[in-house]
């Protein structure tokens, strides 16, 4: 998610100081003004610009301990339909009730005894609930040397919100050579498979060339079937994975050529997979990910050549749908295509932001293939992630431990 260069570290320190000076702000903030076949969105009038919105604080700062994500249980369990689950980087998952924000967060899972979170980009990084099985969840966390994808189940059917730390079943591990660029996102796709974001393994510039090496899992979006084990593993390979037979690449790979895909999401209406990939020196990018796609890193950074700096071979590389440069931010945070009902004019816009500058944008593909990008608001937050509840409404997770909701103004 973040940089390891001294210049960026100095910049982020400055931003943190600025943010701490703004903690007395009011809760509401005004706005400033070759793919595979996808399901088409339903026909509806489209606004030329997204509507004016505000951020409303749901839980105040310091409620959460270094949160890096917030998810819902997708309505699988009726008693948990309105609840949200925050991922705390040190190794805890807690449950929040946006309808009762003063309630103390309830611990759902505490695995701090096995999570290594000493590095700024290590720790408990992802959570996904099974889309059909209540009380079953999957997490992405780091040890000092590896990424671990594991399954946990509920302690008691009477309390499906509480996961048993002793129930851990490890599905997948892969070695991490450095302390940064872990990716970390987990999400179930419309096909029922589990998708996993894996960064390039860290350092700077992808020194081992992991992004373009199809025989390692780093720098990839992975896809596995968690419902059926095979070959002595607690998962199996979907038959249509691009390298399912393992001859030309690791069978778990769905797409490759990523640097640090910090957050991705599926459009709940079209099924499109949107990913935000953090750049190296010049560009942050938004990608629409398709099966077997090569998104360029480290041959390219966004739309620019990286290695070599000029005249790189772009053959077969899929360029991002949108990029922005260092004048606008330093670390892109992926979000969601809004499909809620509370803000009709926002439907169909992809909402994302920047970690350090706190800007939140709305992006949309137009019918003619062009892309429209509009500033939605300046949040004044160090944004770590976006989340969506079971009703499709959007939330912003901030590093100061607060959770905010995007609402119509």
TrEMBL record:
- Residues of the signal peptide: 1-27
Annotated region Disordered: the residues are: 27-53
On whether Signal is a keyword of this UniProt record, the answer is yes
Cite the Pfam families for this sequence.
GSDH (PF07995)
Q: Spell out the Gene3D superfamilies in the cross-references.
A: TolB, C-terminal domain
* Domain called Glucose/Sorbosone dehydrogenase: residue spans: 81-404
Per its UniProt entry, which superkingdom is the organism in? Bacteria
Sorted alphabetically, the keyword list is: Signal
Compositionally skewed regions (Low complexity) per UniProt: 32-53
InterPro entries linked to this entry: 6-blade_b-propeller_TolB-like (IPR011042), Glc/Sorbosone_DH (IPR012938), Quinoprot_gluc/sorb_DH_b-prop (IPR011041)
- PANTHER family registered for this protein in UniProt: ALDOSE SUGAR DEHYDROGENASE YLII (PTHR19328:SF75), HEDGEHOG-INTERACTING PROTEIN (PTHR19328)
Protein name, entry field: Glucose/arabinose dehydrogenase
Q: Which organism is it from?
A: Paenibacillus taihuensis
